[in-house]
Design brief:
15 helices, six-stranded mixed sheet, disordered N terminus, 408 residues, Serine Threonine Protein Phosphatase 5, Tetratricopeptide repeat, 3 domains, globular
């Protein structure tokens, strides 16, 4: 049978978490069980309501994965996948440890949906990682599936040993890149449009967190019947899985007419307020969502965390095109604590309100004063990409890529 190798040039990506996701509690009421939106479901099946699946699709980039060709992923029964990481004497010792920790990060974040064990020989591995210089020094790595027919034989990731100036790779940059490459090797072949996700095409070496959107996309991917996988699915598993068309069909289902009464739930802790805020936000009840977010801010003990909550409120109102409320929330965020994140809010508001020229001027000023501001860098890159200003994009990457981020 003809052997096909599917290659994907991977780019380092990052994910900035704006809210504290550590607390995970369930709140029980006679009529309604509310789970913290940050303790998300990563396994979807036909027993779930269409609204639940739709909410996950909306808050993910699964549509990009589905539109990128055939669904390629590993059989969940094959977990843990066996991983070989080359122990090369001609690269710094931390290279291998960082790549290993990136695999462990995916396992932890997915709560075991995907899992790995490390082996010493490539002949016994499902996934193989090597360190060798490639022709493309602007990319930290290249990923490839080896496929026979509709079966995955293995997955290979090759990391460049040095950057385009022959310097050893920065540890955070390598870790961020490894997260994205592993995402591709798990089947996340699509790209996110959010600058905060691991699978966003332009990354930053400082963003090293897997986001909710990354995880929801992974959860949906491993909840549908694959076109290509490493081992046949059992008939029982296939019967429980969704098809891509079934998942996408949920987009025609309304989600704003949920009959459960959120107003009857009494919130007393951060996680419950966050869960309520997320639910109200999905129902487009933004004033109620803002009140729940404000309750979270009051429970936070440091100015930085409080400002991040008001930043999230501002973003919510921007998404809803309620620009007056967005500006008011942004002003509170900046007054509470001026930091790298809140400093970008005026530019973000200008970007949303179609004043890209002003936004660019503001972001360039920020980066001149602080070339390490990753939030300003990512937003500036996004604007240039949206406007198809490739020369300006490349110039920005060359100028600030080593301090705030890199194209990879």
């Amino acid at each position: 049978m003809k052997k096909i190798v599917i290659c994907t040039v991977l780019m380092a990506a990052g994910a900035a978490s704006l809210m504290n996701m550590a607390d995970r509690v369930d709140v029980q009421s006679p009529e309604f069980t509310l789970k913290n939106s940050y303790a998300m479901t990563l396994r979807y099946d036909k027993s779930m309501g269409e609204k639940t699946i739709k909410a996950a699709v909306i808050d993910s980039y699964f549509r990009s994965v589905a539109s990128n060709g055939k669904i390629i992923r590993w059989n969940k029964d094959s977990m843990p996948l066996r991983v070989y990481i080359q122990d090369s004497a001609d690269v710094p010792g931390y290279y291998r440890e960082i790549v290993m920790s990136a695999y462990q990060a995916w396992q932890r974040a997915s709560e075991g949906l995907v899992s790995f064990e490390f082996v010493e020989s490539p002949s016994e591995a499902d996934m193989k990682c090597y360190f060798k210089n490639t022709d493309n020094k602007k990319s930290i790595g290249v990923h490839a599936f080896t496929i026979n027919g509709n079966r995955i034989s293995d997955s290979t990731i090759v990391f460049n040993k040095t950057d385009d100036k022959n310097h050893s790779l920065d540890s955070k940059q390598l870790f961020s890149s490894a997260l994205q490459e592993i995402g591709h090797s798990l089947g996340l072949t699509g790209k996110s449009k959010s600058i905060y996700d691991v699978m966003y095409p332009i990354g930053t070496k400082f963003n090293t967190e897997i986001t909710q959107r990354d995880l929801k996309t992974l959860g949906l991917l491993y909840s549908v019947v694959p076109d290509i996988t490493n081992a046949p699915l059992s008939s029982e598993e296939s019967s429980q899985l969704l098809t891509v068309s079934e998942v996408l069909a949920t987009l025609n289902v309304p989600v704003t007419n949920d009959t459960k009464n959120l107003d009857e739930i009494v919130a007393g802790d951060v996680s419950t307020h966050l869960a309520l805020a997320e639910q109200y936000r999905r129902r487009a009840e933004y004033e109620k969502a803002a009140k729940e977010y404000q309750a979270v801010a009051q429970l936070k003990t440091d100015r930085r965390s409080k400002s991040e909550v008001y930043y999230e409120i501002a973003v919510m109102y921007l998404d809803a095109e309620e620009y007056g409320n967005a500006k008011a929330s942004a002003e509170i965020a900046m007054a509470t604590d001026m930091n790298d994140l809140t400093e970008t809010l005026p530019a973000l508001i200008n970007y949303y309100t179609k004043r890209s020229t002003s936004a660019v001027e503001q972001l360039e000023t920020i980066l001149k004063q602080n070339p390490y501001n990753k939030h300003a860098y990512k937003l500036l890159c996004k604007i240039y990409r949206d406007k198809h200003h490739e020369n300006l994009l490349n110039s920005t990457i060359r100028k600030y890529g080593k301090t705030a981020g890199s194209e990879d």
